[in-house]
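Let's practice the habit of predicting before peeking. Look at the sequence and jot down your guess about where helices and strands might fall. Then scroll down.
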Amino acid sequence: MTHVHHSAYSVVLRVMCIKGTTILDIINNLMSKSSINIPDLSSYCGDRFRLRISRHRKEVSSQSKKWFFYADHSSIEKKNAYHGLNPGLLVSVCYPHGGFPQLRVVTDFLTYLFYFDNISDEMDNMTIRDASNIVMKSLQDPWSFQTSRRIGTMAKE
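Done guessing? Here is the structure:
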């Protein structure tokens, strides 16, 4: 078994074929634990689904991390949380034959989504709506729309 800390994708993996258990029981069980165990699927699947990692992983991860932390004034705690995500590795495993530019775009986008998810945890509904509007306007018209909010400047990049 592989030890995984609580995260969105580990929760999804946990909700597998539990007979006689309601979704509410599963959620309550997961919320009471700080970590869960999931099966080692790579060993189970053997050579049929051999794990492949892009040769661009290290460079993509390094450049995406530099992009993410550029002009970032987050706390050390929040920066350390990013290192545990390892989006460059996830993208490199999902697209092992992808080219460097393609992997970099996907890694930056995934990093951006993780970032938006993290900051939205601390927002109320109105603030989330305002942040979403900034993101959408930044994507729709990156040259004319002006914002100093990091969520908007990252979307433009």
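How did you do? Residues 2-49 form one domain.
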